[in-house]
Specification:
Two copies of one chain form a homodimer. By secondary structure, chain A is α/β, with parallel strands linked by helices. Chain A is built from 21 helices and 16 strands. Chains A, B: One of its GO terms (molecular function) is xylan alpha-1,2-glucuronosidase activity.
Chain lengths: 704, 704
């Protein structure tokens, strides 16, 4: 019948449209034998349906089983008549109640999956202390089915390692997404609150499937308008839609809102009228959104207003908002991504310098949000030195899911390994084994989501949303395993498809590092929109907005000396880490030029001189993209045509741009080093001036 | 099986998604009895498949018949084995060849549908002189089936009345759509030319279904970049996709491009270097796009560069580009929407004043593009006085499909009657019966299309795209009949659904006139974004960008005196028309305040004084929206839930904003007239100052 339906529907345009909208929740029919086996365990669903979250869990399971197994399960709210899936909490299910003690040990968001015998039937329990845990457990179970896992001797106990798992949307109120490459903002402020687009619910489902439990709706370069009554009514409508899925709404707050909205003459955090304004605003927000999460703030950074405008500290500013939110249980996420107007010796040192002294000065509901690295979401950075340096302050790590510096939405770059590298970095602050992940209270990902049909601007960029969510739940989860789950759920569980896709994905980030910024180079992109190479970028308002500031290439060598003889950024790390980075012999080669200014003829691990190695890496990056193209071409016929042709088109675009990065970078660095190309390397097809002259005034995502 | 499929697919998210994407080409299954009857005539399709257009026609027919009749037809390329649909041209089909003489009389884009007897079978001929006519005929046949029309004694002969039937996209290269309310631009310049989104083909299908035969891809406020080689390669990719559907690509040209792209020091149309640059650019374009349509130009208007910057005339400027395009068969569409920097007595008179003297001065491949009315796409305007005033110059009419001044995408306003009113206006230039439509060479509609899933930002705004296309093909087609076709194709052919929807649609434009600008008032919207009422708008850079300039309300009366005693705009019309507009007694009441300044106590046709009539109209507009809400509520269960709930949400938003328009306008005009509200009229809930203080810095579509 499926076939018949497909034949018929193919012509009415309603055949399973593999346009990417369904994300990793496609619930496509499984192999008949496997489906039959699962059906013997899962013919019936016993679940409560009293609360919105209970209904969401029940409906997701029905949707998933119906699609995967080709048949809707029998539904039941209490009694068991056959092998069944039993959902519930000790409060919501008499069948689960006996397990109360064991279950409550899992914590508010945890869950367990396990077989049990009840009323003479073998059942599969999806049990949790709270409704939301049951929903998470349902998604876990569906993932097991989507990936073809065995249910025998199933014994799963899960709890999130991080309390706050948030998306940050850099969305403006006019629908423009800063650094967005997936269309317009998902939030249609013009039609809210009246129109509640079903897509908002699918957004919540996708996040809940990963355990993401919060979302900041608006850009950190915030408009005060987002705190005005009409926009709060719109945000409240979204909060109502997200609530059953365990997702709290947060807002970016503009520090000067008391002036712009309140008509005050100052936003001084120590001014009583300002303090009253924020208290009243918090009260107003919580009357509309009882579970409002709190504020995210970018202050005194890149022109944003902040407490330093009044001679106050970041702690004064953060505590102002924290005091207003505390009575309601809200938090302030205060970004450490700051740099002063007067350019310092090394921008990489600045956040640490400004914040480390404030450790202990923040109210308990303030969390300092620190980017993964000390500069700005580069293809590769060392971990941020503030991790481990503020023991008395809760910290969140901010990573970018949108690929501002990694080829936008058109380059296939799987960020799982980048996140994993940052999370597993050993700060050595308490000797061995104090990884960044262990020091975190939460994690925030700058979303790559827009109104594009694929959500993320490309099919493979969905994997970065997915990997972020999985790592937010469990930062120790290997990014390769996450890639395998994603590929199986997004395409098909067949290993002949999953395995090559995983290889492509795991190779892709290193490819981008190679064709953009190899060996620890960073910040070499074009100015403003950051589209394409710009190693020659110089001049302009700030030295630390140029490329030459960062690569420091000259006739003799290349790299930023951040050792004790240079900016001494290494001194911001723990002694053990500092000693390793300080020593040219011990510094990891992938970070070599981040920490050292190195002569062109320095001998590399490969035995080649640095200059040869650098050019070789650029060329290797292009070759890696060609390899991804070949792998993908080999999957034709095994991946649905609609997505195969789109990914192939994007890969050829990536190939063209990788070559452009390689040629422009080699042309530039050769003009500086004055050295001949290594044997076997082809010269760039155009002179350097040709690359320098390229203009892209309409490149997407530019800050406005 | 369909039911079974629906049940199954409902859970896999693949049930017929009534999200609006399919537009009026849903091809939903017909009533079984009707489908069975049609199948007896249409069991087989005999069509050639040698050219892309032939394949497009064949595939559309298969898609349509399969969906509507629930069964794919047998396909055949020549012989006839059963009652069949026979597609072809005298060149492509031996079965059609005998009709060559009769068919060629239909012209290049015409077609005929008729029964015939061939090889002992009754067949339905879809015959045309060219492949494109066959495709148009297929869409005509499918429309007959979708609306449940009888095929007995079918005899259709169709040819378009206008040669140029174009969409104008005001899309910027960064994806922003000026005055767009349907998301981002459909053109993803970043992924072109590699990625050819299937949506581009659906866009072409939708336009071909209406006979639209050209599209201007970029904003009239143009960037020179759109003429640069990389963007021409992207435009060429779109042209390749559109070509089989009879759609030619045009570009808006920035007059100063020779300076910005060519590095020249001038764009003077009489400068030989400038002339050479445009000739070379035209040659370059035609090597990439052999059937390139030509240029659309906005010059010396609202700050755009133009020939007057060099002391040359609009004719000099238009002829410069026309000379470059002429060898390739391209045209220049030169917009008459111009007004000088020094504000004149009456902006309504300005286009006429600047252009009428140029009649005869343009090269033959120049077409002057004139807006439907003398101001700017207002809810109601008289026809533009240039129509009929330039007998030696081909003219196009430009109308707006996007609703910049009619409630954006969130108000249900069917524009069919507005277009019909403009097209059927009698210019009386040759005595009776010289309608605007009869004087036109072509028509352009400013598109309301974006990447929103509904294409147009709402379900009912699709009807405006549809009505524009149908009227472009046949300007005499009654807009009510077009509404009925659209409703039947978009929702269901059942009369109990179609009839009330048509009533809503036909009432909707007058409703908007009433709650926004009744009795000939115009240009009363808020400044800049044009969102909501702003009758109080005054000051700023130009008097003719204010509301008070247009309504001229004072203690004694209201309206713009455009009679001989005033600006004498009436003098720009033919004597017969001028005499009617000039006479307060004869001027049509819907245009009264456009042409006359009228005392508040002037007795109206209703017998009420003007003040009472004005307030009554505002209130009536709100009541009309309430009526639309009631009608729509009555259709619950007869229209699919997905679209019913969205339209209902949009109508409640429209109701709220109509009330806002009414209250703000009444509050303002009462502050001017000083008169009491008529009996039975409720006072606005807020003082005037409250309405004046409202700010919407993020309203969509604002010019940037």
């Amino acid at each position: 019948m499926l076939v018949a339906a497909a034949v018929l529907l193919a012509f009415t345009g309603n055949v399973r449209a593999e346009d990417g909208y369904a994300l990793w929740m496609r619930y496509a029919p499984l192999q008949p034998a496997l489906a039959a086996d699962y059906r013997t365990h899962l013919g019936e669903v016993v679940s409560p349906d009293q609360t919105p979250t209970q209904r969401a869990a029940r409906e997701e399971l029905v949707r998933g089983l119906s699609g995967l197994l080709g048949r809707a399960p029998r539904m039941n709210t209490a009694a068991i008549a056959a092998p069944a899936v039993v959902l519930g909490t000790p409060q919501s299910s008499v069948l689960i109640a006996p397990l109360r003690k064991e279950i409550e040990a899992l914590g508010d968001e945890g869950y367990l999956l396990r077989h049990a015998h009840i009323d003479g039937h073998t059942v599969l329990l999806v049990a949790a202390p709270q409704d939301i845990g049951v929903l998470y457990g349902v998604f876990h179970l569906l993932r097991l089915l989507q990936t073809g896992a065995s249910l025998d001797a199933l014994e799963v106990r899960e709890s999130p390692r991080l309390r706050l798992r948030l998306l940050n949307h850099w969305d403006n109120l006019d629908g423009y997404v800063e650094r967005g490459y997936a269309g317009r903002s998902l939030w249609d402020w013009q039609t809210l609150p009246e129109w509640r687009d079903p897509r908002y619910t699918d957004y919540a489902r996708a996040n809940a499937s990963l355990g993401i439990n919060g979302t900041v709706l608006n850009n950190v370069n915030a408009s005060a308008q987002s705190l005005a009554p009409d926009y709060l009514a719109k945000a409240a409508a979204l909060a109502d839609i997200f609530r059953p899925y365990g997702i709290r709404v947060y807002l970016s707050a503009r520090f000067s809102a008391p002036i712009e909205l309140g008509g005050l003459t100052t936003a001084d955090p120590l001014d009583p009228a300002v303090q009253r304004w924020w208290r009243d605003k918090a009260d107003e927000i919580y009357t509309r959104i009882p579970d409002f999460g709190g504020f995210l703030v970018k202050a005194n950074s890149e022109g944003q207003p902040g407490p330093q405008d009044y001679g106050r500290s970041h702690a004064d500013g953060a505590n102002l908002l924290a005091a207003a939110l505390a009575p309601h249980g809200g938090v302030v996420m205060w970004r450490a991504f700051v740099y002063a107007h007067d350019v310092p010796a090394d921008r990489a040192t600045q956040a640490y310098t400004e914040f480390v002294g404030l450790d202990g000065a923040f109210l308990p509901n303030v969390i300092v949000q620190v980017k993964n690295g000390p500069i700005d979401f580069q293809p590769r950075e060392p971990f941020h030195p503030l991790f481990g340096a503020m023991p008395r302050t809760p910290l969140m790590m901010e990573v970018q899911i949108t690929k501002e510096y990694l080829g936008f939405a058109t380059h296939l770059v799987y960020l799982g390994p980048l996140y994993e590298e940052a999370l597993q970095s050993d700060t050595r602050v308490r000797g061995e084994g104090a990884t960044v992940a262990q020091l975190l209270t939460g994690i925030a990902g700058v979303a790559n989501i827009g109104n594009d049909r694929t959500w993320s601007g490309s099919h493979f960029d969905q994997a970065n949303w997915y990997a972020f969510g999985r790592l937010a739940w469990n930062p120790r989860h290997p990014s390769r395993d996450i890639a395998a789950d994603w590929a199986a759920m997004t395409f098909t569980p067949s290993p002949e498809v999953v395995q090559p896709i995983v290889e492509m994905m795991m190779d892709s980030r290193e490819a981008a590092v190679n064709y953009m910024t190899p060996l620890g180079l960073h910040h070499l992109m074009a100015r403003g929109h950051h589209y394409g190479p710009g190693p020659w970028v110089d001049g302009g308002p700030r030295a630390d907005w140029t490329s030459v500031y960062y690569h420091r290439a000259d006739r003799h060598g290349i790299g930023f000396d951040r050792t004790a003889h240079g900016s001494n950024a290494v001194g911001q790390y723990s002694p053990e880490v500092a000693a390793e980075y300080e020593d040219l012999a011990r510094a990891p080669e992938p970070l070599l030029l981040w920490f050292h200014h190195v002569p062109w003829d320095h001998r590399m691990a490969s035995g080649r001189p640095l200059w040869d190695e650098l050019v070789g890496r650029y060329t290797q990056g292009v070759r890696q993209v060609q390899g991804m193209q070949a792998t993908w071409a080999g999957l034709q016929g095994r991946v649905d045509a609609q997505r195969h042709v789109q990914v192939a088109a994007f890969l050829s675009l990536q190939r063209r741009e990788a070559q452009w990065w390689r040629d422009a970078s080699v042309a530039y660095f050769q003009s500086v080093s004055g050295r001949p190309l290594p044997a076997g390397e082809t010269a760039p097809p155009h002179p350097l001036a040709w690359y320098e002259a390229l203009q892209f005034p309409s490149a997407p995502g530019d800050g406005r």
